[in-house]
User: What shape does this take?
Amino acid sequence: MRFIYWRVSVFIAAAVVPSYWLYQAWIFALGPDPGKVLVDRLGLGTLVLLLITLAMTPLQRTTGWPGWIAVRRQLGLWCFTYVSLHMLGYGFFILGFDWGQLGVELLKRPYIIVGALGFLGLLSLAVTSNRYSQRRLGVRWKKLHRLSYLILGLGLLHMLWIVRADLKEWSVYATIGALLLVLRIPVIAGRIQRRRVKSSSGATKV
Assistant: This one.
């Protein structure tokens, strides 16, 4: 397996963060409502991981290093892991697994529907992230995985709805997301790749 140490490093980094949060919750270091804090952190962690995952292709085009793409699938699966823990935490800490209360929550907080749609989108990407699905779906696989852009929009909308009073942090994530989408526009992506190739050719001649 190529880039084994890089892959292992990414795995450890992604696994350590929620483990540390769980430890903090266990020792009551997350304030008077550790469950809610944990749910919020897992949700934010999902958004951050999605942004990092979407950054892998622009980074590869800019630097030419294939290691970025080598961990893209792993990062995407970690993103799904985080959102699954986020949903599980919501069910346990917020609802107490009282699913009858879910209908009331949906009426009071419609952003939960937006978050659920994002979860379903990440679920479809995680299920089809394997090579069998790539072969089976063919060209449709790439079209399906473009859902990641829509999922990013849903995630940002979900967060915006929650933090309406303080948009500073949200603006940072929204700006990064917009930049990543701009870098994927074919014309811009092509220019970046051509510039890298020219730069590499110039360095080789010297």
Remarks:
- The chain has one domain: 4-194.
